[in-house]
Every structure is written in structure tokens, then in C-alpha cells.
Design a protein that fits this description.
This is THAP-type domain-containing protein. The strands form two sheets. This protein has a two-stranded antiparallel sheet. It has a two-stranded antiparallel sheet with strand order 3-4. The protein has 84 residues and is largely without helices or strands. A hairpin with a 2-residue loop joins strand 1 and strand 2. Bound molecules: zinc ion (ZN).
């Protein structure tokens, strides 16, 4: 089972949005970009298992027409639950 690594995000590989399976993206191989993703997610680097983020954390402009992530994509959309 692949799950989204973002805090408070319930997405898994079986999650559907409007009837379509959600897309989960593996963290980048490139260390610099991977660290940026981790920072944005408030996550610590884990060597144990591969991490994934679901499409809900990326702005529309980071997707290509075929719904792939652009090479410069970084996750910026998180439910921080501010004020709770
Ligand atoms: Zn997610």
C-alpha cells in the first residue's frame, strides 16, 4: 500500500478524486530537490522506505498536460490546520 507522506493527508493509492485514481509521486532522486520536498513537508529524511506525495500538494502550474509533474515541481499545498 502506497500512502501519501504529508501530515494529515489520508490519500493512498486507492484514493479516488471525481472517480479517478489519485496520483502519487515518488520523492525526487536528486538530493537538493528531495531535501526541498522534505522541508516543505516538515519531514525528516527516511532511508527505510520510499516516500510519496499525492497530487493534492502541487499547484496546477506544476503539472504537464499529461498530468505528470514538471521537473521543477515542489509541493506547496498543505493542510497545516492553523488555528486549531
Ligand atoms: Zn497527500
Amino acid at each position: 500500500m502506497i500512502t501519501c507522506a504529508a501530515d494529515n493527508c489520508p490519500s493512498t493509492q486507492d484514493t479516488r478524486i471525481d472517480g479517478n485514481l489519485i496520483t502519487l509521486f515518488p520523492f525526487p532522486e536528486d538530493d537538493q530537490r528531495k531535501n526541498q520536498w522534505l522541508r516543505n513537508c516538515d519531514l525528516l529524511l527516511s532511508d527505510d522506505e520510499p516516500l510519496y506525495l499525492c497530487e493534492l500538494h502541487f499547484e496546477e502550474s506544476y503539472f504537464t498536460e499529461s498530468k505528470d509533474l514538471k521537473p521543477n515541481a515542489i509541493p506547496t499545498i498543505f493542510d497545516k490546520k492553523e488555528g486549531l
